[in-house]
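Lab channel / #folding
Pinned by the channel admin:
"Please post every new chain as: sequence first, then the structure tokens as a reply. Keep commentary short and put observations after the output so the thread stays searchable."

First post following the new format, from NK:
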Amino acid sequence: MMKPFKILVCLFCLLIFTADLKAQNATRLNLYDTKISDLMKNEKVRRAFEFLREIEPQTIEEQIKITEIPAPTFKEAKRAEYFRQRFTELGLQNVRIDKAGNAIGERPGKSNKTTLVLTAHLDTVFDENTDVRVRREDKVLKAPGISDDGRGLTLLLAIAKALYEARIETDGSIIFVANVAEEGLGDLKGTRHLFNEELKNRITHFISIDGAELKITNQAVGSFRYRTTFKGKGGHSYGAFGLPNPIHALGRLVEKVSRFQVPTKPKTTFNVGKISGGTSVNSIAASATIEIDMRSESPSELAKLNAAYKQVVEQALQEENERWQNVEKLTVENLAIGNRPTGTQSPDAPIVQIALAADRSLGIKSELEASSTDSNIPISLGIPAITLDGGGIGRGTHSLNESWDSTNSHIGSQRALIITLAIVGLRNM
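Reply from TO:
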């Protein structure tokens, strides 16, 4: 048994340690708050802030213009060309469209110590035949893609314009990127290309601007996606009765998936989003396909779900073949069509602390969240990265009824600007 004196000594040491930890946290908070405060006192920064507020009506008009350029995943070329032109007009350097289709413009700083990629995604979840004309109802704009990511894309241009108009020179470099293939089967192709080829070994920090509101994404929700196809001989529903049926096998699989048990924390999800197959009501299908999406904040939970899915695919195949005991057997192809890495940017990381300090300065109630965004890639690589919302109020994301409310939306632009400047630093500050 520990003696009373030793207990008192241990408690005293614990109190000292706790007090020291609190002091370190307070010092760290003061450091980032001071950084933001000093920036806000700078005359050019104040001018850029005021400029962003003044031009918000024009910024919103640009948001409308961008939204009305159709840009389905893998078909973003027209919108990318618009950004190439705008980046050039705004004085960015080495403006180009890379092999992946990303539109890129650079704003070199004094040193190469810091290179921040500031990005938003070009693509939408809607096909090229979707009516993307924007309807305005007072402060509310309605159109597919108006928020995700019409708002984020707009902020790239607004920030570049504010830096140019206020003649702000930075210590680090800012690379503006309107990237392709963030949505759906794009599987973050544009951002992967930045890190693997176009900007390989150059990026020190990464900020994605995606959608509305004023949250901060620091957790990367990972995912596995599959296109699973059962294949057989097929035949007449009456004359060939007794053949294993790909659609029946698919039904077995979906039923098994529907019984998966997943945790609510860490949040883990699954969804069969697409089914196809068959030729007619009186035919045994030759093939049937589903596409499934599985996600989690946790790498281990995602791995367990992935393993469970592969297992039930084989079970469904076996059960359908055994049901009929026919010489003709079904086969299955389980094609991976998406693999987004997961990970976490620690709340204590400088990039997150800078964003939180900016929120305190602007009177924003901070919310850290988990999501699947372009930041998944740098976070998984250990590169400081977050995704910022672009301001305003978004509703109905990924639906034909998507809308965006512009109330106080200029705060999103100002916030993204001050966080950007806190990362790259002012040249003569």
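NK: The longest helix spans residues 4-41.
TO: also worth noting, The mean pLDDT is 93.
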